[in-house]
Design brief:
Order of helices and strands: EHEHEEEHEEHEEEHEEEEEEEEHEEEH
Number of strands: 21
Number of helices: 7
Number of domains: 3
CATH class of the largest domain: Alpha Beta
Oligomer: single chain
Largest sheet: 8 strands, mixed
CATH topology of the largest domain: FAD/NAD(P)-binding domain
CATH architecture of the largest domain: 3-Layer(bba) Sandwich
Structural class: alpha+beta
Shape: elongated
Length: 349
Amino acid sequence: MKQEYDYIIVGQGLAGSCLALQLARRGKSFLVYSDPKGKSASRVAGGLINPVTGRKMVLTWRANELFPYLHKFYREAEKTLNSKFFFEMPIYRPFVSIEEQNEWQGKSTEEHFAPFLKKIFSKEEAENIVEDPFGGLLLDKSGYLDTEAFLEGVQKWLLAGGHLVEQKFALDSINLNEEAVVYRSVKANRIIFCDGVKGSENPYFKEIKYRPVKGEVLKVEIKEQLNKIYNRGVFVMPRNGLNTVGSNYDHNDLSWEPTEKGMEEIESKLKALLKVPYVVKEHKAGVRPSVADRRPVLGPSKLDERLVAFNGLGTKGVSLAPFFSEQLANWLCDGIEPDKEVRIERFFN
């Protein structure tokens, strides 16, 4: 292992993995530190890629920029990593009322929705799989990322290139001198912290208002073969022979253990959605690194601009990480400022 790099990246979740790919494309040298015993929300994530979200079914923030970019990014990453992990799949969202159906008939003519709407159904379409007496919305440009396969692909690629150190990063071993940032015996121009919920313990970024949120997912067996994702209250996503079902949002219990309460909450919504029987095979939980305004955070520490944060990807990390890792890489390599609404400076006032 050499002793001088352009960058050190701390963390190999979605943020760190996407940033490593961006820096490699720019020919930069870097070293990634990843704690093999550390907990990672990215590995538990359902991986849903969904342009229309929430109870009110609104277009997700900046969808018209994020979605074309993420499709391109993950396709290129599959080639780089020689692995399959990005799956395009339509999402079917049943309407809950005639009023909602009528509202979407009107929205379908709006230009910003057009790229994401495949079809609107005014009567049952779900082949007796889910409850949809009022029809529903079939979405395009949607699908999922197999997060475990993606992160494992990046891990193998980093190891093969000599870019990965599998050990816990010790904050108290950073030495800031005039020439470089030194971590133990390794010199770098900058250290980028992609440390997820651990970021709330980082003394260099005390200003960031973290609001972590726990989420639980089930893996269930359904006899019927699903060919699309169903989403209303919870999502039901065919993946690797089983179906991933999620998720819930808990700001109070921030343990990494799945709970009976979480399972009951997800199952009550699942039973309201599904018409067919299912069997729960697995139950997992993770804590997502969200912040108060639910926007990504990127930029330098107030204490030393050579220490940089990339965090706050929250519940939509799969959709946000590609686009904003590019913005961060553009700033690191070319000095191009990221968008104002994601800059860390918004927490400095």
